[in-house]
Write a sequence for this structure.
C-alpha cells in the first residue's frame, strides 16, 4: 500500500535537473509532496488532486497521472537549497481510506556546487 | 505564530514505563495525525483524527494510543514502550477534516524517542 518512490537517492550539480517518481498499486485520489531537510520537519511543497493535473512552485513542478497511478516531481536548474529528502504522500479512493495519508519511503537529493 | 508544538523534543526512557508525547496546534485545524520516521521506511502513519472525539488507526497503530478531547491537542500515549518503538515521531495538522486530501500538512519539530 505504501507508494514507491524512485530513485532512492540522487546527486546533482547546481543547475542540473532531476525527476522523482511516486508510484502506487492502488488508485490515487490525491498526491502531496514534501521536502525535509536534515534534522528538520517535513515542509509542504504542493498537492495534486486531479488526474493529469500539473502544478508549479518556483522551479519545482509536479504532475499527476491518474491512469498510471503515478506522480512525478520535477526540479529544474537545481539550487543548493533543494538538497533534502523528498516524500510523496498519497490518499486512495474509498471512504475507508479517507484521512489516511500514506507516505513513500523518501528520495534523498544532494545538490553539489 | 501559527505552529504545531510537540514536547518533549528528546526523550530517553526504559522499557515498560508509560509516557506521553504532547502535540498542540494553534491554527484551529480539524485534522491531526501522528507519524513515526525510521531510516529507509519513510513516514508511517500511527493514528489520525478528523475532529474532536474522532480518531482512527493508521498503518502502524500497535502499541500506541491517542485521544482528541480538544481540537488543539492530540497526545500520543505509549502505555508500555518497547525498544522497537525507538524512532523519530512527528505530529501534523491540517484544516482538512473530511477534506484532508485538499489541505497541506503542518508538521511539528519532532520528538526523538529512545527506549532502552
Amino acid at each position: 500500500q505504501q507508494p514507491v518512490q524512485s530513485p532512492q537517492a540522487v546527486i546533482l550539480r547546481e543547475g542540473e535537473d532531476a525527476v522523482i517518481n511516486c508510484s502506487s498499486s492502488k488508485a490515487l485520489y490525491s498526491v502531496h509532496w514534501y521536502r525535509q531537510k536534515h534534522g528538520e520537519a517535513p515542509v509542504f511543497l504542493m498537492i495534486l488532486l486531479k488526474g493529469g493535473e500539473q502544478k508549479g512552485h518556483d522551479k519545482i513542478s509536479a504532475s499527476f497521472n491518474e491512469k498510471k497511478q503515478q506522480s512525478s516531481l520535477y526540479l529544474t536548474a537545481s539550487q543548493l537549497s533543494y538538497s533534502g529528502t523528498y516524500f510523496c504522500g498519497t490518499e486512495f479512493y474509498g471512504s475507508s481510506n479517507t484521512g489516511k495519508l500514506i507516505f513513500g519511503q523518501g528520495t534523498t537529493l544532494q545538490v553539489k556546487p | 505564530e501559527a505552529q504545531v508544538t510537540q514536547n518533549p523534543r528528546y526523550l530517553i526512557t526504559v522499557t515498560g514505563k508509560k509516557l506521553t508525547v504532547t502535540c498542540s496546534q494553534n491554527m484551529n485545524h480539524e485534522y491531526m495525525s501522528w507519524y513515526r520516521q525510521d531510516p529507509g521506511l519513510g513516514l508511517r502513519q500511527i493514528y489520525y483524527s478528523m475532529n474532536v472525539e474522532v480518531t482512527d488507526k493508521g498503518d502502524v497503530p500497535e502499541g500506541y494510543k491517542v485521544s482528541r478531547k480538544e481540537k488543539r491537542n492530540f497526545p500520543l500515549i505509549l502505555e508500555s514502550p518497547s525498544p522497537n518503538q525507538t524512532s523519530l515521531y512527528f505530529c501534523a495538522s491540517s484544516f482538512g477534516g473530511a477534506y484532508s486530501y485538499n489541505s497541506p500538512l503542518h508538521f511539528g519539530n519532532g520528538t526523538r524517542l529512545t527506549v532502552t
Chain A has a mean pLDDT of 88. The CA atoms of residues 51 and 63 of chain A lie 9 Å apart. DSSP finds no helices and eleven strands in chain A. Chain A touches chain B through 25 residues (CB under 8 Å).
